[in-house]
Design goal:
about 500 residues; 3 domains; alpha/beta; four-stranded antiparallel beta sheet; Aspartate Aminotransferase, domain 2
């Protein structure tokens, strides 16, 4: 039988109008709208024309393609109208996974966002007085409570900084906190407010680079402050800071090395030494904590991460930290410290440019309330840290039993979870891992199919094995993982 030419194949293609008037496509129009369906139909027809022109569609293939037009339009609509930002199952064991959105929010935070955003709110309205108010009052009261514990020293009017005899920041009236959109913005605002056109003394060993190639020296340059590096990469003493102080010095800066470690022949000026130097020379001391925990993490098995309250108690004047890392809340940059210094930042015009919206305040308020109530398990980040190896192993064993007898070869092995998000680089949490191999599929192909599943499952791939760590998987998602594994093996 003689095959027909391309011209005849082109003539067999229906018009867009003919396609949208078919019953099957009409059902799609009722759901997605005429404009979207028409545009999708044009796209499908355009691809068919290209395939005819390139010789990919012959007469038989064209008949099959024509019968599948409604399905092709439906797929095109899903790609066009579906959300790009999607929920995924984090099975990497990295609790604060930057690429996966860092800290998941508490249920109460999600509910508060819904209530505050579905209609109007008192974001900047004083209900009692009936006049305009300030948006940061919604979290300021909670920060004041959390960062000004009634652990005062009699007769001093404040908390005693560790290692010094004088009172530091921290009567309830002395501590203030403001919120901006991330920690880089917090550092920028603080430096601009306290040290614009002046020098900021910082150790060379603390000039860190955070995610996305943002570097502390670059942020400092944008703030208008002048960087004054002291010491060496591995050793900086308090005497190095003191020698650098001159009439142009405005601030001493400490940057917590939360995303890397220097080991071996090292020395770092203690925070107590820097507090004493700052007091003696009449300079404010600022510390960029980066992650910023609100509780002592030793109980969670995490060492080397000082809390914000610890630093204020010690005598640091200003602390900057993130909201979506160890705090477990929404993306935000927090600045806590002496009221008069924070007030200067609040009156800076940059503060308005960097401020956050009602959704962030709602999520942050609900997260802070959980801390005030000491309901730490309500905060997913802290709850994941507290999970035991035995608990994780039991859940992993249950999934392994569900997929036994299929094409999967499943083992349970010991492993380690990490905090991630540039926090506690040396701390690991013992865990149990699901080690997966699938008959006929390599590890990379299995990982690809897991990511392409609905919902997407994000694993680790190590030494030719696909590994799932349930520490970062919500228990309600265990059944979803088992279902995805069944679909892949089928």
């Amino acid at each position: 039988m003689k095959s027909i030419g391309k011209a005849e194949l082109f003539r067999r293609l229906p018009s867009v109008d003919e396609i949208v008037r078919t019953p099957a496509v009409g059902e799609l129009t009722a759901v997605s709208g005429s404009a979207a369906v028409t545009d999708a139909a044009r796209g499908v027809l355009g691809r068919m024309r290209d395939e005819i022109a390139s010789g990919l569609l012959d007469e038989q293939a064209l008949d099959l393609a024509l019968s599948g037009i409604p399905s092709a339009i439906e797929q095109q609509l899903r790609r066009t109208l579906g959300y790009s930002l999607r929920g995924v199952i984090n099975a990497t064991g990295v609790i604060l996974h930057t690429n996966l959105g860092r800290a998941p929010l508490a249920v109460t935070a999600i509910e508060h966002i819904r209530n505050a955003s579905a209609g109007y709110s008192n974001l900047e309205f004083e209900l009692e007085a009936g006049e305009r108010g300030k948006r940061d009052v919604h979290v300021e009261r909670l920060f004041r409570k959390l960062l000004s514990e009634d652990d005062t020293v009699a007769g001093t009017g404040g908390l005693r900084p560790a290692g010094t005899a004088e009172a530091a920041v921290a009567t309830r009236a002395d501590v203030s906190t403001i919120t901006v959109n991330n920690n880089a913005a917090a550092v920028l605002l603080a430096l601009n407010s306290l040290a614009e056109s002046g020098e900021v003394v910082v150790s060379r060993g603390e000039l860190v680079e955070i995610g996305g190639s943002f570097r502390i020296p670059d942020v400092m340059t944008k703030s208008g402050a002048i960087l004054c590096e002291v010491g060496t990469t591995n050793r900086t003493r308090v005497a190095d800071y003191e020698r650098a102080i001159n009439e142009r010095t405005r601030l001493l800066l400490r940057v917590h090395r939360s995303n890397f470690e220097i080991t071996g022949f090292t020395e770092q000026a203690s925070i107590e030494e820097l507090v004493e130097l700052a007091r003696r020379r009449g300079l404010p001391l600022m510390e960029d904590l980066g992650s910023g925990a609100l509780v002592n993490l030793q109980a969670f098995g995490i060492s080397g991460e000082p809390s914000v309250l610890d630093r204020l108690r010690t005598g640091v004047d200003v602390v900057t930290y993130s909201g979506d890392k160890l705090l477990g809340g929404p993306q935000a940059g927090l600045i806590s410290g002496r009221r008069e210094l924070v007030s200067r930042m609040r009156s800076n015009s940059l503060f308005r440019a960097l401020r956050v919206d009602k959704l962030t305040y709602a999520a942050l308020e609900a997260t802070l309330l959980a801390y005030v109530k000491r309901d730490h398990d309500a905060i997913p980040t802290l709850r994941m840290m507290r999970r035991t190896k035995e608990e994780i192993g039991q859940r992993a064993q249950a999934i392994a039993r569900q997929v036994s007898g299929s094409k999967w070869n499943v083992e349970l092995i010991d492993g380690e979870s990490v905090i991630g998000g540039g926090a506690a680089p040396s701390s690991v949490l013992p865990t149990r891992l699901l080690s997966l191999r699938c008959e006929g599929l390599g590890a990379d192909e299995v990982a690809t199919r897991l990511r392409a599943s609905d919902p997407p499952v994000i694993p680790r791939v190590e030494d030719g094995r696909v590994l799932l760590d349930l520490r970062t998987v919500f228990p309600a998602q265990d059944e979803m993982i088992a279902a995805v594994l069944h679909r892949i093996s089928a």
